[in-house]
Amino acid sequence: MNLVKKVSFYLFFCMMLMVSAAWASVDKPGEGVTVRPARATWNTGFFQEALVRKGLEALGYKVNRPKDLQNPIFYKSLALGDVDYWTNGWFPMHDSQMPKNFYEVAGLYGYIVKSGGMQGYLVSKRDVEKYNIKSLDDFKREEVKKAFDKNGDGKADLTACPPGWGCEQVIRHHLDVYGLRDSINPVKASYEAGMASALGAYRAGEPIFFYTWAPNWTIFKLKPGRDVMWINVPKIIPLKGQASSVDRMIESGVAGAVTDPVKLGFVVSDIRIAANKKFMDKNPAARKFFEVFTLPLEDINAQNTQMNGGEKSQKAIERHATEWIAKNIIQWNKWLDQARDAAK
Question: Where are the domains of the chain?
């Protein structure tokens, strides 16, 4: 090869490397950046963590294994810059668990599920109709107490929360302020065992009355509007910690509610990504992905049902996420393209 050809080949080779590098930087704008996520301690939130992590990895980021943290510890860690984000923010429920300077150094991005963090009481639909049940107050009626009394103590049995759960405190408050101690017996054993028993009772044609939250497998197996109905509390009497969010305790457009709006008695939250502002400012691709990524509540409930059926290992959760991406590949690629465009 003569000198001219050698130089031409070298220039062509260099040009190809430059084009390749430019293309790689566009296709994977996160290349070279290590991300430090956290994850909530409840496994019903693991699915969205896996999906968002896979999205960042597709954008070229190296994403560390998430740290499992309790809510207040996470928000403090995020404010200190020890972690970069998590997908398990419930707002306004988590407002009281955040450090005072949180919004100076961190923020909320996108809506994984708007109004997706719901809690409340549900009753078998056939018994809602049979006994005309609209609220907890109806459990003061003798025929209703008798119908839902499983142990013969003269009270309606409610599948409630185990001791120590935040919802247990709210249920205890409701029984007190609505004068229901003599009407409702909160069963506080293992929640999974209690709901398995309730599901069996429903299939046997018996009345059921339970507390639950969304996302959760319970309302995938027992669908509101078809199998069960959300019922009201008599009136909104908040706990001290709920006082600033009274308007989020009444929700309109809830599928399977006995009234519209329905007075749930628990704060309805948006499930959002909380992230450190410095990380967001330096990573526009990640920021855009956080802003556009959403999940149908029904899909989370379905995945939670798979976990409840035994598929709860990390390997199984990763597979669930991969399968979800494959089923929604057009939308998934659109989100990735939007993130890449934001980084240009």
Answer: 3-114+272-342, 117-269
